[in-house]
Amino acid sequence: MRLFVGVHLGSAMKTEVIHFIDSAKKNYPYLKWTSPENLHFTLKFFGEIPGSRLADISEALRQAAAQNEKFEIQLGKIGCFPARGTPRVVWIGISMGDKQLIELGNSIDTACFGHGFPKEERPFSPHLTIARFKNESTDFKFFEPCVQITSKSMIEEFSLIESQLYRTGPVYRQIETFRLQN
Fold it and tell me: Staple partner for 10: which of 117, 138, 153, 165, CB 3.0–4.6 Å?
């Protein structure tokens, strides 16, 4: 199973992001846009994991949820990865709640490490992937710094999600949800 931990968008936030994507698609056909049902913040990517390890992951995620309280986030400016060189991913950052989302991501990583899963090598950088470049010859300057999406959303839970890859794009299946503390 190809697994990751993610946070889904609140409805107002999702609506604003979808509206932005729909308006941008016309002008930027060289981007492969994230489908609305796949919009999420990734907190930890496991990759391929045998089904026999699901109980270990669930226990680790329950521990992380018990250590974190719900919080509010607000979307911010749009950027790309990598910051230098040829861009590959277009993302929306967070202007409020980024510290709490980083804390949550780190808690998840630490709890999973305690159950035998490797720690992330790079520092967690909260972002919402909205598109990927189809080729390497495209200029990214069209977004910066003119666009800012400012929706807010309360983060009350996160999910363990299975990702199945197809030619048409990934299909996600939520396996389990973990509620944060009040």
Answer: 153
- In CATH, what is the architecture of 2-179? Alpha-Beta Complex (3.90)
CA distance 77 to 74: 10
E-strand ranges in 19-170 read: 31-33, 40-48, 71-81, 89-96, 128-133, 152-155, 157-164
Region class of 90: left (phi > 0), else alpha (psi between -120 and 50), else beta: beta
How many Å apart are CA 101 and CA 123, to the nearest integer?
A: 12
Please name the amino acid found at residue 66. A
Distances (CA, A) of 172 to 8, 118, 123, 125: 12, 23, 25, 22
pTM of the entire predicted model: 0.89
- The helix or strand, by DSSP H or E, that contains position 179, with its residue range, turns out to be strand 171-179
Q: In Å, how far from its chain's centre is CA 93? A: 10
pLDDT per position as a tens digit, 136-147: 655 555 554 445
Residue 160's φ and ψ, nearest 5 degrees, are -90, 125
At residue 88, the pLDDT reads 84
Please, is 105 exposed, middle or buried when counting C-beta atoms within 10 Å of its C-beta (0-12, 13-18, 19+)?
buried
User: In the chain, where are the structural domains located?
Assistant: 2-179
Does residue 155 contact residue 73 with C-beta atoms inside 8 Å?
yes
